[in-house]
Amino acid sequence: MKSLPYFCRGEVIRGFGRGSKELGIPTANFPDSVVEHLPADISTGIYYGWACVDNGDIYKMVMSIGWNPYYKNTKKSMETHVIHTFKEDFYGQILSVVMVGYIRPERSYDSLEALIAAINNDIEEAKAKLELPEHLKLREDNFFTTAPSTSSTAPAATTPTSQTIMNGH
Fold first, then answer.
1. Which helix (H) or strand (E) holds 142?
2. Which one-letter DSSP state was computed for residue 13?
3. Nearest to 98 by CA among 145, 52, 162
4. What is the tens place of the pLDDT at every residue in 101-118?
5. What is the C-alpha to C-alpha distance for residues 98 and 77, in angstroms, rounded to an integer?
C-alpha cells in the first residue's frame, strides 16, 4: 500500500458501544469526515501503528477499518484500540494516529469468542512489529508533537477539529 505510513487525526466520537462492553477491548472511533478521506489504496482490514490522545504520550495501536463483518455494519468505520489502559473515556478529544502496517483483511467469525481471540492475536502482532526499527522511528515523528489540543487555552482553529485530516508524508 503506497499510502503507508498514513497520518490522520480527528475528534473521538461515540461508536457502536461494543468495544468495551462486548469485547473488553475499548476502541476510539473517528468521525465520517476522517473515514471518507482515506486513500483508495488503504483497503479494509486490520492495521497497526502509533497513536496519541491530544498532546499525551504515544502508544502502540491496532485499527480496524471497514464494516466489521461479524456485526454486519452498514457503515464503514475506523476503530482504534490504543494499547494502553486509560483511566477514563476520551470522547471529544483529538486522536492522532500513524498507520504503519497491515495485519490482515477483515473477516467474519463464528462466535464472539473467536472474534476476541483474533483481536488479541492482532494486538500481539502489532506489539511485535512496532518494535522493528523502521516502525519505532515513526513514534518520534513531528506529527505527534504538532497535535492540536482541545484545552480551552489553545488558540481557536479556523476549521472544526473534527474535520482535521492529515495525509501521509
1. helix 142-145
2. B
3. 52
4. 999 999 989 998 999 999
5. 16
